[in-house]
Amino acid sequence: MNPEDGNGLSLASRTERVSRSPIREMFDLAHEYRDQDLVHMEIGEPDFDTPDHIIDAAVEATQNGATHYTSSTGISELRNAIADDLDYEYDPDSEIIVTAGAVEALALACITVADPSDEVIVPTPAWPNYQIQGIMTDANVVNVPLCEEEGFALDTELLVDQMSDETAAILLTSPSNPTGQILDPSATAEIVEAAAEHDAYVIADEVYKDIVYDQQFQSVASNTAHPEHVITVGSCSKTYSMTGWRVGWFAANERVADAALEFHESIVTCAPAPSQQAAVEALTGDQEPIQSMLSAFDDRREYVVNRVEDLPGISCPEPDGAFYAFLDCSELGVESTTIARELLEEHGVVVVPGVGFGDTLDEYIRISFANSLDRLELGFDRIEEYVELNGSV
Ligand SMILES: Cc1ncc(COP(=O)(O)O)c(C=O)c1O
Known about the structure:
The protein is globular, with a radius of gyration of 21 Å. It is an alpha/beta fold. Helix content is 39%, strand content 14%. The chain has a seven-stranded mixed β-sheet, sandwiched between helices. Strands 9-12-11 form a three-stranded antiparallel β-sheet. Pyridoxal-5'-phosphate binds next to helix 4. The site of pyridoxal-5'-phosphate has 13 residues, from helix 4.
């Protein structure tokens, strides 16, 4: 415990290691301007409502009694549906746990495999929550910046060199938040190989696996000789526009899944029963609404890439998946938190500062294209105005 501070309350010392994400700070700042016509390009969730057939299935199931605890691993129909959805063959009875969103599955993965002071390696840019998930277990989170000039491609040599017997896990996200990059399968296979040599795990965050455009997605677990060293994390949140339902999954070798289940039971008992019913319908029901959402994201991606190309001095790697673009704003010569604050306060656009995705990324901003084409057009007009006023080129 920490010694008491000024107000007489002591907290666990790990709370000292958790710092406020610049992303949350932006959200709070944007809230102060909520009465203005802000263009929200910071949001990390689909702007579509959950398709009707999914909501109807949940309502019907709830009226028919899906209001109780379920088995802590989740209802068997859902575990079977998840197993069918994954491209590596996990046993739905012993290797899949339904979780309260991917975020719970990621926390379970860290708690299950990392001891205090073990290393959890995070190649950056990366989703900021991984830092806190590592800290929850008192692990050392080691951020490994990937090369900007290489478009943040996985540098296997760099990452394998970083691994040691202290390494408990390495987090890989594909498609990536914030770049949208799909990881090269041969690179992920090499990383799993090295993880296996160190008796470590690859935690494969694949929440965006269905939001992919021109390329094929191949899961990390399906592309290695050591699938027992991979923990696959996914969810219904992004694919089915179901962020509020809180349904995700943790899929791993039986021994790992059994251990994770102990923690899961003491954190949430089980994922919400009505949401599990909704997820069965999402995974097994009509996929047409999902295709329509995907095609809307693809149109917006094309629009965003074109608008970024026209911004003087600004560039971004073309996203292969997800609904983000990570804009290199180094030509502006100011910190990402300043860019984000000025865009909000002076131009009414909300974006996320790059520094939230890694300390070395203070010249980037992340924009989300989970917004209508009309709003994106207005947002980009405003960003263009800002760049023209502040750019040196
Ligand atoms: C990379 C990544 N992983 C996990 C999550 C969490 O997803 P869920 O809503 O399923 O908890 C997010 C949400 O933004 C994300 O971007």
